[in-house]
Amino acid sequence: MENTTAFVQSLQQLVDPSSHLALAPPLARWDVRVDGREHRVELTTGYPLAAGTVAALREQVEGLAQVAGGVLAGFEARHRVAAHAVQPGLSPVPRVRNVIAVGSGKGGVGKSTTAVNLALALQRLGAKVGVLDADVYGPSVPAMLGLSGRPESPDNKSIEPLRAFGVEAMSIGLLVDTDTPMIWRGPMATSALTQLFTDTRWDDLDYLIVDLPPGTGDIQLTLAQKIPVAGAVIVTTPQEIATLDARKALKMFEKVNVPVLGIVENMAVHVCSNCGHAEHLFGQGGGQAMAAQYGVPLLGSLPLDLRIREQGDAGTPVVAAAPDSAPAQAYLAAAQAMAAQLAARPRASIAIVSTLA
């Protein structure tokens, strides 16, 4: 028994390479059975792990078993995503365990591209995922996911999300013609967002990624007041002028009691497809400096890569079209780090019931 306890303690010191967090409670649980020299190990995490991470962990567990004087007779990794705490006065809603908002201080930093690829990355990792396009005035998620047609309403009250690449999606862009401008005042736009969230028949999602419009206006305030959000991610590019605006988005989430899970630095480096030369076109280290200043993790630095733009325009995002490519692997690592940061946060302490009118 004493040897088993020591072995479990050694396992809890192993680290997720994407988030750099130790795989110990509340992030993960290790179950060990020892029969003579044979060690059988089960790892249950509160978020999905990439296949490469699982393989690397297996090797480390095998080494720890040998150090303990045994052999690894079996290793299994699984995940179980729980609902996590949201803003005071709100509770997670049925069919959606965790809402994660993706925001930015300004437009043009690749926020929507990042949101869509993070959602697809979570799905590839094994989670059930949806995307809510909250940019009522400039919805781009349908085009990025190659979606068209109107959602169905089986009961004339709720609407079925459309699906692409295993991810559910809803957007005002699916309910109006492509070239129809949304000339709405703030209350109409915020009402539309609330209805899209509450009236969509989400199918028991682990994560709902909400692609916010840029800035800190009415939509963001409605999200904070009426929609239970478990965490937020800030997207920025490295240059100082972009991080200045991203700081405002980060402080906004702090003021409305939405925890910031981390920062994603987009367009961090460009690698020439002809010669392989790497160049930091938009500066270097801005995301890391901002993360250090505010005490939040840098979830990932994503490349400025032609494939990301081309495949997004074609409606086949890079994570779906080229999952083994360097850009897709960067999104997968960032998604795993984001999910790990959420898993480390407190869980929802009350039953999952809707608090929305």
SSE map:
Elements: H1 2-11, E1 28-35, E2 38-45, H2 51-67, E3 71-79, E4 99-103, H3 111-124, E5 129-133, H4 141-144, E6 162-164, E7 167-171, H5 186-199, E8 207-211, H6 218-226, E9 231-236, H7 240-255, E10 260-265, E11 270-271, E12 278-279, H8 286-294, E13 298-301, H9 306-313, H10 318-321, H11 326-343
Parallel strand pairs: 2-3, 4-8, 4-9, 5-7, 5-8, 9-10, 10-13
Antiparallel strand pairs: 1-2, 6-7, 11-12
Structural class: alpha/beta
| CATH architecture designation of the largest domain | 3-Layer(aba) Sandwich
The count of β-strands is: 13
Indicate the CATH topology of the largest domain.
Rossmann fold
Low-confidence stretches: 351-357
What is the element string, with H for helices and E for strands? HEEHEEHEHEEHEHEHEEEHEHHH
Main β-sheet, in a few words? Answer: 8 strands, mixed
What does this structure look like?
The protein has 357 residues and is α/β, with parallel strands linked by helices. The protein has two domains: 2-79, GMP Synthetase, Chain A, domain 3, CATH 3.30.300; 99-343, 3-Layer(aba) Sandwich (Rossmann fold), CATH 3.40.50. 34% of the residues lie in helices and 19% in strands. The chain is built from eleven helices and 13 strands. It has helices at 2-11, 51-67, 111-124, 141-144, 186-199, 218-226, 240-255, 286-294, 306-313, 318-321, 326-343; strands at 28-35, 38-45, 71-79, 99-103, 129-133, 162-164, 167-171, 207-211, 231-236, 260-265, 270-271, 278-279, 298-301. The strands form three sheets. The protein has an eight-stranded mixed beta sheet, with helices on both faces. Strands 1-2-3 form a three-stranded mixed beta sheet, with helices on one face. A two-stranded antiparallel sheet has the order 11-12. Strand 11 and strand 12 (278-279) form a beta hairpin. Helix 3 (111-124) crosses helix 11 and helix 5 crosses helix 6. The chain is globular. The relative contact order is 0.17. Residues 351-357 have low confidence and may be disordered.
